[in-house]
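Reviewers of the previous submission asked for a worked example of the structure-prediction workflow described in the proposal, so we include one complete record here. The input consisted solely of the amino acid sequence. No template or homolog information was supplied to the procedure at any stage.
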Amino acid sequence: MAVRLPRPHRFDRWVALCGLLGGLLLWGIGLGNRAAEEPNALLDGRWPILPPLVVMAGCELARRSAPRAALLVGTVALTADTLTQGNLATVLMFTDVMYAAVLYGTAASARRILWITALITAVATLVPLALWRVPEAVLIGVITGIVSFGPASTGWIVRNHRDAAEAARLRAEQTALLAELDRTQAVTAERARVARELHDLVAGHLSAIAIHSTAALSLDDPATTREALTVIRENSVDGLAEMRRLIGILRDGSGDHEPAAAPTLDGLGALVAAARGNGLDVRLRADHGSVPAPVELAAYRIVQESLTNALKHASPGPVTVSLARRDDCLTVTVTSPSGGGAGPRAPGSGAGLTGMRERASLLGGTFTAGPEGALWAVRAALPLTEGDPR
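From that input alone, the workflow returned the following structure tokens.
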């Protein structure tokens, strides 16, 4: 099976072409690294200069796709070039191949190349100086460093900057992602809070309207109809007022309307009176004292939703609301006669129990709702301090 080599990068093709054409131009005008009459070249003549030049241009094509292989082949080509009169384009292309090997190769390979070129440069400086003991011998090490260690260290610096920029980009993307997640969670939590408030504010009024409108339509009694219409009007006005207060809070981000819209446990008497006006036989026992505002709001809403559910589902009979403070926990209990198999007197979405459970959970409390013999009982334990209630 034939192995398909990766296609050279467009920039690499241009580098190889320019290097080859530049080398051919220098070769054509007879300009080499050493004079033709200099006896140091082992391969005399002009033609031996071309093979290393062509091979080095080929290495430029693989400088990005196969940097280590390009460096190995390029090193052999440079060695061969030193045996001829030499070509400056071959040397320059080798420095670029060295640079690319450090920049595009693996991190381990880049470190090895950097250390090897530094060692070669040191040896090329110290050994000739020790053997010949003339200052000019240092030039060998300088040239070696320019050709090998210089490009390698430049590639290492550029690689570090590139990696740092990539790490910064990734951190910025992660920060943006976390910020978006936080924003989404905040929006979701706010929507859930508004949904709970909206449900608790209007569900009781709408349930009373539905029940009394059904009674007014089913009974041909002017007095009953008038009484039902009175209750319907009162609940409509109260529900509209609650809706206006909630809309005011949503439109005003300053929170100036929050105190007027946040009910307290002192308002349980009015809440129970309204439930009695809707036809429930409600009995209230409250011994709670002073409690934190979040607990106060949650307890009020749980009682409010429980009375709404009793209005829709409970059988005739007393509904008991009890609040008691025990150590660091406020317990809320609402019991009503179980409706048995009878259907609800008003339609519901089923979100009431979910909202009450969420309110208790947000405070670290517990919530249960279900039948207990002939009763339907709602029980909530709301801690007054952080942590679970004792």
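The beta strands are 281-287, 318-326, 329-337, 366-372, 375-383. We consider this example representative of the routine output the project will generate in years two and three.
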